[in-house]
């Protein structure tokens, strides 16, 4: 949920106007809007490149994933992995745009460990894939934008670990 939505909901629940501190938070949120939109646009426009780079990096680190018997062995399994990488990258853009980790949690992390465990997908491998997505993504951003985007990747990594 965005800062604006949260302030409005909190104020409404308490039947009051937003406080000066809450209004300051909204002002800060709006001041970073251009940066957040720029980051999300860069990640979205480069999704294919990011996913390809992240997967190459992961396969170099963990060739057993694409070897016979590995979870990403074969075209179908590999395509499913790449689909998930794109999905996680999209979750990061949602968090960046909202200026909050809430969308990542609500949309993508609830039950993820259980899902991967039930499918026999090693969760540590997914965590490593998020690290590779982070590296490939941040390489395309300026230092300031990378600093803003990094915590959203870190949140996913920590939540899945």
Automatic annotation (TrEMBL):
Pfam families: Phycobilisome. It is a peripheral membrane protein. It is found in: Cellular thylakoid membrane; Membrane. The modification N4-methylasparagine is found at residue 71. CDD domains: APC_alpha (cd12125). InterPro entries: Globin-like_sf (IPR009050), Phycobilisome_asu/bsu (IPR012128), Phycobilisome_asu/bsu_sf (IPR038719). One of its GO terms (biological process) is photosynthesis. Keywords: Antenna complex, Bile pigment, Chromophore, Electron transport, Membrane, Photosynthesis, Phycobilisome, Thylakoid, Transport. Signal peptide: none annotated. Its main location: membrane. (2R,3E)-phycocyanobilin binds at residues 71, 81. GO terms for cellular component: phycobilisome; plasma membrane-derived thylakoid membrane. It comes from the Bacteria. Belongs to the phycobiliprotein family. This is Allophycocyanin. It comes from Drouetiella hepatica Uher 2000/2452. The lineage of its organism: Bacteria, Bacillati, Cyanobacteriota, Cyanophyceae, Oculatellales.
